Automatic annotation (TrEMBL):
Binds 2 Zn(2+) ions per subunit. It comes from Hydrogeniiclostridium mannosilyticum. The lineage of its organism: Bacteria, Bacillati, Bacillota, Clostridia, Eubacteriales. Its EC number is 3.4.11.4. GO terms for biological process: peptide metabolic process; proteolysis. GO terms for cellular component: cytosol. Keywords: Aminopeptidase, Hydrolase, Metal-binding, Metalloprotease, Protease, Zinc. This is Peptidase T. InterPro entries: ArgE/DapE_CS, Bact_exopeptidase_dim_dom, Peptidase_M20, Peptidase_M20_dimer, Peptidase_M20B. Its cofactor is Zn(2+). Transmembrane segments: none annotated. The keyword Zinc applies. Residues 205-305 form the Peptidase M20 dimerisation domain.
Length: 411
């Protein structure tokens, strides 16, 4: 079975995660997919495949030779983002893309256009997995699962040599809880890769430092006809709070290593308004500066409007894994070699986000991120080329084979 066929099967599971749910997994369908994946692994000869109480899927293959490299893991996540609908996904193959507009939904006039997404021009003549424009696709990260699973199938079918291989599929990555219950010791790997990236060729081991910020603004409501000197409008103070942040440090105005503040939710009235932000920066110093700016704004507004007007809650989410991965350069070099062997030019790029691997790296499991080939994640225009998925399967197989020799793996 090819990787795209598995992807089409997996996206039938609505695995949207829910940040408001206290359970793990946060949504029940993730557990249904987990059971299906464990069954599939067992069918491929991964005899110890299992689902734990938290919905994590684990499995491993023993080394084929005594003198093998360190145990190597491959990880992807099962949940999809709540940023776009994830139920009733009607994915299809758009064969031999011709470079023009690709109609996703004629009735709703939803079109995947190279004018808006110029990267499409790179895939002329290829087959694209797309949505019908009413949902996301879920290639983030079911493409990663599909590619890992297909690589396992090939390793087993062709009886290829390898060291100990460990596999894990995690819940709730999209809500930042993907490794909350990850059993690093039970997983059994010394090093790992997540397959959770984007464009074919990309290797990532620098991610954002990340924090969340919640600003609660408390006002005083009174009839507007009698409001002079009495009304303290929490909505207007919230607008003032946001206006004091740099207007060019937002996601829509930044790229590469540039960090940002992202206002992702606002709700309230004159008496109480809540702002929810995420704060991101690759550089530790600038990350600290961003958080300090939020504190200074809150202090200024409290001084201006009275103590207790602004309550700021800052919570660090994860940190840049660069310092944890750089001591093991062979992880990046081996990924480069595997891509080059498949005719792909590798590109080491920063992650403008986070991965399970970032947090796992701080838990003692160095874990850079590999591409899956997908584009436009978390939205209705998400797509992934079939051919990119095929290449990534071969890349994963090469990494698994390279692990068959301790000398070759770390040389």
């Amino acid at each position: 079975m090819r990787a795209y066929e598995r992807l089409l099967k997996y996206v039938a599971f609505d695995t949207t995660s829910d940040e408001d749910s206290p359970s793990c997994p946060s949504t029940p369908n993730q557990l249904l997919l987990a059971q299906a994946l464990a069954d599939e692994l067992r069918g491929l000869g991964v005899a110890d495949a299992r689902v734990d109480a938290y919905g994590y899927v684990y499995g491993s293959l023993p080394a084929t030779a005594a003198d093998s490299g360190p145990a190597l893991g491959f990880i992807a996540h099962m949940d999809t983002s709540a940023s776009a609908p994830g139920a009733n996904i009607r994915a299809r193959i758009a064969p031999c893309y011709d470079g023009g507009e690709l109609v996703l939904n004629k009735a709703l006039n939803i079109v995947l256009s190279p004018e808006r997404y110029p990267v499409l021009k790179d895939y002329i003549g290829q087959d694209l997995v797309v949505t019908d424009g009413s949902t996301l696709l879920g290639a983030d990260d079911k493409a990663g699962i599909a590619e890992i699973m297909t690589a396992v199938e090939r390793i087993q079918r062709e009886a290829l040599p390898h060291g100990k291989l460990c596999f894990a599929f995690t819940p709730d990555e999209e809500i930042g809880r993907g490794v909350d219950h990850f059993d690093v010791a039970g997983f059994g790997a010394q090093f790992a890769y997540t397959a959770d990236g984007g464009r074919l060729g990309e290797i990532e081991y620098e991610n954002f430092n990340a924090a969340s910020a919640v600003a609660t603004i408390r006002g005083v409501s009174i009839h507007p006809g009698d409001a002079k000197g009495k009304l303290k409008n929490a909505i207007l103070i919230a607008m003032e709070f946001n206006a004091m942040l740099p207007c060019n440090e937002i996601p829509a105005a930044t790229e590469g290593y540039e960090g940002f503040y992202h206002l992702r939710w606002i709700e309230g009235d004159e008496e109480k308004t809540i702002l929810k932000y995420i704060v991101r920066d690759h550089d530790e110093g600038r990350f600290t500066e961003k958080k300090e700016r939020l504190k200074k704004i809150a202090a200024y507004l409290n001084d201006r409007y009275g103590a207790g007007t602004v309550e700021l809650e800052l919570t660090d989410s994860y940190y840049n894994m660069k310092s944890k991965v750089e001591p093991y350069p062979f992880l990046i070099e081996n990924a480069r070699k595997a891509l080059e062997a498949e005719g792909v030019a590798p590109a080491v790029v920063p992650i403008r986000g986070g991965t399970d691997g970032a947090m796992l790296s701080f838990m003692g499991l160095p874990c850079p991120n590999l591409c899956t080939g997908g584009h436009n994640y978390h939205g209705r225009f998400e797509f992934i080329p079939v051919q990119s998925m095929d290449v990534m399967v071969s890349v994963l197989v090469r990494l698994m084979e390279q692990n068959s020799s301790a000398r070759d793996f770390s040389s």
